[in-house]
Amino acid sequence: MKRIALAAMLGLAVIMPVQAQTVVKHLHITSIPAEVELMNSIAEEFMAQNPDIKVELPFLENEAFKAKLTTLLQSADAPDVFHSWGGGVFYEQAKAGFLRPVGDVLSQEALDNQGTAGVSAFTGPDGEIYGVARDVSEVVLWYNKALFEQAGVDPASMQTWEGFLEGVQTFKDAGITPIAVGAKDKWPAHFWWSKLVVRLAGQEGFEAAARGDGDGFAGEDFVKAGEYFLQLAEMEPWQDGFLAASYSDASGLFGDGKAAMHLMGDWDYGAMKDNSATKEGIPDDQLGILPFPTIEGGKGDPTDTLGGIGGILFSKNASDAAVKWVEFFNSPEQQRKYAEAAYYIPIAKGAADVMTNPFKVQIGQNISGAHWHALFFDQALGPNVGGVVNDVSADLAANAISAEEAAQLIKEAVDDSL
């Protein structure tokens, strides 16, 4: 009897097929522990509804991600989907054949969910859609109200470049570090040059230079941007050891109340807390956002912003299951969770409506009211030119290069890429 039962069990095991699972690797750069937990919980919810799909969430830190992604995309360990800031870097990945067009697989709901701007951001020069937009972001000048009060600096006095420099000197005289910057990673320094270009050259000037028109990035407005940057750098406004400081170091320094200002993306609201020694950062009532100083005679519109439209791209070997996962992850229902927790500003239709964080609400209004929302220059200009922009920006922050030389190096990089 036992043998018959055992045989029956063995037979049952043979005839009951094991459900095959399609693995979807989603490479991300999320480092805040609570945000990682949220992403994991969304993946668990998806897998519970789709037992035939297994979602894996490998992580790479920001700089390692940039350094290793191209090699990864050419390897057997390539992710199915991965984070993207769009722009020229995305165009190069599409041109190199690293990506899968998904316009014929994405549902109309998923396309409508992103809006025209979102779809456009991840449509390649060939007209194919290679990804989905996830969030919008802005680089803003965060400031510590308590340190402003301690130094006797009126935030309103910082709205012009002259007033800004005077305020920086007042902080120095008071023994307070004016500005935190993570120059080791270089891209945080490029925000200063980029914001100055946005003010001085404006959209038309930047786009003309990117095309290589006329003097390109060696033109007057771009040299001036370097000169203004050097005016600031010569005052030595940064924290001690800024050239060896990473973004996380600078973010934590600001979060610990050891610098008056930090020019950084809206994501720093959470990161400055996570990177601070206390994990609490600056209390909301002591945190503020300053408008980047205006420059007399600048061609930019005062409403112009700098930031990005972040998203998710599909690698060339991505399966339809990967598309299904991303549609679920990027749905308004799931993205509202990110809005409620103030991790970022989702692009999903209606998701940002639930935001209550005053800083995120203000930034969302800035972007929606912008004449030009400029994409991060190191991404907009592609990997080769963007790398040069980051290099010269770090050199300008260190007062180690002339404005003319910096502008010429960027122009040469553009010329080489055309």
From TrEMBL:
Keyword Signal in annotation: yes
Whether Signal counts among this entry's keywords is yes
Main localization of the protein? Answer: periplasm
The places in or outside the cell where this protein is found are: Periplasm
Superkingdom classification of source: Bacteria
Q: Which Pfam family, any one, appears in the UniProt record? A: SBP_bac_1
Q: What transmembrane ranges does the database entry give? A: none
- Give the family per the record: Belongs to the bacterial solute-binding protein 1 family.
Q: What is this protein called?
A: Extracellular solute-binding protein
Taxonomic source organism: Devosia albogilva
